[in-house]
Specification:
This protein is α/β, with parallel strands linked by helices. It is built from 10 helices and 10 strands. Strands 3-2-1-4-5 form a 5-stranded mixed beta sheet, with helices on both faces. The protein has a 5-stranded mixed beta sheet with strand order 8-7-6-9-10, sandwiched between helices.
Length: 348
């Protein structure tokens, strides 16, 4: 991409419950706005796809108008539209691809699809130079819907080498929070409660953890958190005598701490183990649960112990769904690849 040939990019990220739009000029963020749906989904304790799609439809035009107003641009000034098309919630994706495709067709602006998972991986490039991230590396993605380990030999080589066999760690955080009558999303609340636990981290030698560590095969890269959720449910039922009384604050703090430790120990160990097995010296973290300070602390400890370099998003804002991650992936694709000025057909 020639320096004088600057591109104005309109990026959409609407794969789940955040309506996020950003406008960039090459590698410079001009403005980003995100409308959250957390208050709506807190009522049901999780994202309902049809409700999320309706909220996107309600927010889309005022968010788009806001980013255009703040940048003093018009749609006619846009060179490319990049929009998340997979994977995630189909009703949410349909809402946005319909709007983006309409703009693309009417104004003859090229629209190019973006993979949601790859965009989250590229969130690690935000506010970093390209050479700051060294390959090959092993990347762990952790969210409410996905829990995978990827091998990356270079910037475009993304090969899945491990995955969850049932529930993701992010979903487990949300469901455990719901078991304790806490708000949605559960990750930040459980993490905050766990920080209040008086027991030092890590647990004292010889002490028995409240919940099991679900390793499956310890030296392999797959995960399972459904059994851990069941163990938490049994503990909650035991402490409440099956709905006869409520959990105390002390109960919630202890359960949150023990549950979080059970999840983090497995995530951190398997990420580092896969790196060592593949003779890789760099590990990376991405997606929503990468905002968890305890997880980053434990991976940092294991990485240092094994002489590995650990990379994670520079801001917790980039751990969540946001248009900036769509843009950074866009920027590198335009930089490395040639795209014809034509209308692409977006398929879900």
């Amino acid at each position: 991409m020639k320096k004088e040939d600057k591109k104005i990019i309109l990026a959409f990220e609407t794969s789940c419950d955040d309506t996020s739009i950003a406008i960039f000029e090459d590698d410079k963020l001009l403005f980003m706005d995100t409308a959250s749906q957390i208050k709506i989904h807190n009522i049901t304790g999780g994202v309902v796809p049809e409700v999320a799609a309706r909220e996107h439809a309600n927010a889309i035009f005022w968010v788009l108008e806001n980013v255009l107003t703040e940048t003093n641009l018009k749609l006619e000034n846009i060179d490319y539209i990049w929009v998340t098309t997979s994977p995630w919630l189909l009703p949410s994706l349909l809402t946005w691809t319909t709007v983006a495709s309409t703009i693309s067709t009417v104004l003859q602006i090229p629209i190019i699809p973006i993979n949601h998972i790859q965009a989250h991986v590229f969130s690690n490039f935000l506010e970093r130079k390209e050479e700051d991230i060294k390959f090959p590396l092993i990347c762990l993605t952790v969210s409410g819907g996905h829990n995978d380990i990827y091998s990356m030999k270079d910037i475009w080589d993304l090969e899945k080498v491990g995955s969850t066999t049932d529930d993701s760690s992010g979903e487990a955080f949300d469901k455990v929070a719901k078991m304790m009558w806490l708000e949605y999303p559960g990750g930040p609340i459980i993490s905050k409660l766990a920080e209040s636990h008086p027991q030092p981290i890590p647990c004292k030698e010889g002490s028995k953890p409240l919940f099991p560590r679900v390793w499956l095969v310890k030296k392999e890269a797959d995960f399972s958190f459904s059994g851990l959720k069941s163990a938490v449910k049994r503990e909650v039922d035991k402490r409440t005598n099956r709905w006869e009384k409520e959990l105390t604050l002390e109960d919630k703090i202890e359960i949150s701490y023990e549950f979080q430790e059970a999840v983090i120990e497995v995530l951190a160990y398997k990420l580092v183990q896969v790196a060592l097995q593949n003779w890789v010296k760099n590990v990376m973290l991405a997606w929503g649960v990468s905002a968890n300070n305890r997880l980053k602390e434990e991976i940092t400890r294991l990485a240092k112990k094994n002489n590995l370099e650990f990379i994670f998003p520079v801001s917790n804002l980039y751990c969540m769904d946001n248009a900036a991650m769509v843009w950074i992936l866009t920027y590198y694709k335009i930089k490395y690849w040639e795209f014809e000025k034509k209308i692409w057909v977006v398929k879900l």
